[in-house]
Structures are given as C-alpha cells and as structure tokens.
Design goal:
The chain has helices spanning 20-25, 40-43, 51-68, 81-91, 105-120, 150-164, 212-215, 228-233, 238-248, 250-268, 290-298, 304-316, 321-334, 339-349, 355-366, 381-388, 393-398, 413-427; strands at 4-10, 32-39, 75-79, 93-100, 124-128. By secondary structure, it is of the alpha/beta class. It has 3 domains: 1-131, Rossmann fold; 133-167 and 206-268, Serine Threonine Protein Phosphatase 5, Tetratricopeptide repeat; 279-427, Orthogonal Bundle (DNA Cyclobutane Dipyrimidine Photolyase, subunit A, domain 3), CATH 1.10.579.10. The chain is globular and about 75 Å long.
Length: 430
C-alpha cells in the first residue's frame, strides 16, 4: 500500500523556522513529506552557472541536513511542475497538500493548475500567507481599491501592523517529529543540469541597520544588510525581520513596506510586467540604441558612478540601492532606452531579483510607474558621485583604471537632460 502523507511544497520559503505553511502541514494527522521542485519552465532560460540556482541548491542542502537530524529528508524533483505532481500522485496516497502563496503572475497560473489537479483527485490543499505581512486586499483604500501611492499605503500598513501589536511568528521545531521518516537521495547540482557558480550570495548582516538612515546612501561604506536575496528566496522570515526592524530602525522598516507595496501593485495590476503603469507614457519614442545599451551593460559609459555600479553588478550580482537609481535613470533618461531593457538585464544579473520590485523600481526611475519620479527629474551622475562617493572609494574599487585617465562621458549631461525632457513632453498623452 502507498504511504498516506501530507505534502509540504517548498518554493520561495527556504527555511524550516517560522514557516507558516510548514507549521500548518506539521499539524496534519499524516506524516509530512517536504518537497522542492526545480521547475524546468523557469530553469530553461538560465545559464548553467546561475548564482541563484546555486544559492537555492545550497539552501535546500541546509534544510535537508536539518531534516536528517529528525530522521527525515527533503524530496527533490526536477521537471515541469504539473508533470511532477502527476508522478507524485502515483507514488503516494496524498491526503493533504500545503504551500505558501506566491503573488507573481506565473506562480498564480501554476498554482491554479496544481490546485485543479489536486481537486480532480479529491485531495485537500491549503495555501498560506508567508512571504509578506499583508497580502492582496488587506491594505486598501476606503473604497476597497488598491493604493497606487506609497505614502498612504505605508500609513495604512503601519496602522494595521500596530493595531495588532506585532505579527505572530510560528514555532515549528516542536513539530519536527511529524516529518515522514523517509531517506531520499539528495541530488548533485550537476544532476539538475547546473554547475556551481563563482558568484556567491553573502550572509545577511543586521549589525549596520541601527545607522541605516544615516549611511544607506553611501556605497563605499558597504553598510547595507545583504538581506534582499534572503528575502527573495525566503531563507529569512519576514515576520521576524519586520518585528525586529520595528524596534530598531523605522527607515529600514519603510524599505520593507516598499517591497510589499510593489508586490501589491503587481498582484493588482499584473500588466505592469510588460506595460507602463501610466499608459499616458506609452507614446514616448525611445531611441533604444543597441551600442549605447552595450556600453551601459559593460560599465563603459564614461560616467564613473554608472560604470562602477554596472561592473559591481556584473561581477557580484549586487548593486547598492543609491547606485541602482543612478544607473537606471541614466539608461532611461540619458540614453532614452526603454526601461524594459534595463529591467530584463537586472533580472538576469541580480541575486535579489524579485519581479515586483524590479519592475516597480525600473518604472519608478523611468517615470512611467505608480508614484514614480517625475519625468523631468534627471539624475546628474557627476553630482551624485560628489554627494555620495566624494573620495572616490567606491568607484576605484570597481574601476581600477580610473586614475590612469578615464574615458570621456559618452554623452553630455546637459544635452541628454534637455533631450530627455523634450522627448517625454512630446510623448506623454495629455
């Protein structure tokens, strides 16, 4: 007879601690088989040494090692998700399935297909909020419509958070005995079709957050938390982080709320992935010069802060947030290249790539998104350099040839600014 089990499906929640869906799964009447699926529909477009796949693999390995201490293990599958679930139905007598919600368009479609399959086979399933503090329609205007301006969203978010006092964290460890006692073979990374990346996700570090407000704009200080990839893949709990940030630094908490704001925008307006949030900007005539784009990608524009940021991204998968704003503004405003080109390049390179934030921030920089920077705001890369890296420490780290006579800027700032404003004015539908 096949084993009667509850299946917990890991996705972007790669931890055992304070995992809502896992917590509920472990309260099941049946032993819990934890699984992770390497989805071929996602993997097929990635390079064989993708750093994010390496990080996922390493995180799963840590989970498996923890599970082995309980006499259990993690079941790893690779394939098209629906096909994998069909095979699971033949391997087990599945009584329940639990997982945490994902709010991206692809994930919503995928989960609907799997839920329909489970329903057709009379299998109970439950999904839980884990990736955010407030989801979907929990933070809305008085008329029930979603906020499209950050500040009132943030105020409502904080009001609701403080009304609850805190958000409850789940203690899963006392329930670990409820994992199924199965010893699955943990695959080699090569069996999944990938190789170890030389680019590493750094451990997160919260020690600098107490001075986050004062230091966050200075890339040379390297005072950021490195939390974003861990939030993206759920190796840290958002509840623990928000409760901690609320006691420690309100500026940092505001950044976490921005993340939820963009997730809510993507859920409510999924067309923003491929279209301007502000349709009035659809008439902008982008230049989309491929040679200019290559120079931007390679960090050879002649503007040191832009080039240092792009080189940091290409070499490490990270880029400081202040620098991200400068390089994004430069692409859209100075070079008049569609924000979608930059968004796609960041999606390929960033270790912390998250669709909602990436699209939201690129449209913010381009002026085409909700609550975006006005179109006539064109960052001056040279002034940004003087304000935030006046001693040139950051740029010299990533541009070793800087003092040997650096390239001339590929375009004059004043000319580019005037051209951008004129192009936007002509393209915006009144």
């Amino acid at each position: 007879m096949k084993q009667k089990v509850t299946i917990f499906w890991f996705r972007r929640d790669l931890r055992l601690d304070d995992n809502v869906g896992l917590f509920h799964a472990l309260h099941s009447s049946f032993p819990v088989v934890p699984i992770f699926i390497f989805d071929e529909d996602i993997l097929e477009s990635l390079p064989k040494s993708d750093a994010r796949v390496s990080f996922i693999y390493d995180s799963l390995q840590k989970i498996n090692e923890e599970l082995q201490l309980t006499g259990s293990s993690l079941l790893i599958k690779k394939g098209k998700t629906t096909e994998v679930w069909h095979s699971l139905l033949t391997e087990y007598d599945i009584q329940n399935v639990t997982f945490n919600k994902d709010y991206e368009p692809y994930a919503i479609k995928r989960d609907l297909e799997i839920c329909n399959l489970l329903q057709q086979n009379s299998i109970a399933f439950s999904s839980y909020k884990d990736h955010v503090i407030f989801e979907e329609k929990e933070i809305t205007k008085s008329d029930g419509l979603p906020y499209t301006i950050y500040t009132p969203y943030k105020n409502k978010w904080l009001e609701k958070y403080h009304l609850n006092g805190t958000v409850t964290e789940c203690d899963t460890k006392p329930l670990f005995a409820n994992f199924a006692k199965n010893q699955f073979q943990f695959p080699e990374l090569s069996q999944i079709g990938f190789e170890k990346s030389t680019i590493k996700v750094l451990p997160h570090n919260l020690t600098q957050i107490k001075s986050y407000k004062e230091t966050r704009d200075f890339p040379a200080l390297d005072s950021t938390s490195y939390l974003s990839p861990h939030l993206r893949f759920g190796t840290v709990s958002i509840r623990k982080l928000v409760n901690w940030a609320n006691k420690t630094n309100q500026t940092f908490l505001s950044e976490l709320i921005w993340r939820e704001f963009f997730i809510q925008i993507l859920f409510s307006f999924p067309n923003v992935v491929n279209h301007n949030f502000k349709s009035a900007y659809d008439g902008i005539q982008w230049r989309n010069n491929e040679e200019d784009f290559k120079r931007w990608c390679s960090g050879t524009t002649g503007y040191p802060m832009v080039d240092a940021g792009m080189r940091q991204l290409n070499e490490t998968g990270y880029m400081h947030n202040r620098v991200r704003m400068v390089v994004a503004s430069f692409l859209c405003k100075h070079l008049l290249i569609n924000w979608q080109w930059g968004e796609a390049y960041f999606a390929e390179k960033l270790l912390d790539f998250e669709l909602a934030s990436n699209v939201g921030n690129w449209q913010w920089a381009a002026g085409t998104g909700c609550d975006a920077a006005p179109y006539f705001r064109v960052f001056n890369p040279e002034i940004q350099l003087k304000k935030f890296d006046d001693k040139g420490i950051y740029i010299r780290k990533w541009i070793p040839e800087f003092d040997l006579g650096y390239n001339e800027p590929m375009i004059d700032h004043a000319f580019a600014r005037d051209r951008a404003i004129a192009t936007y004015k002509a393209g915006i539908v009144k």
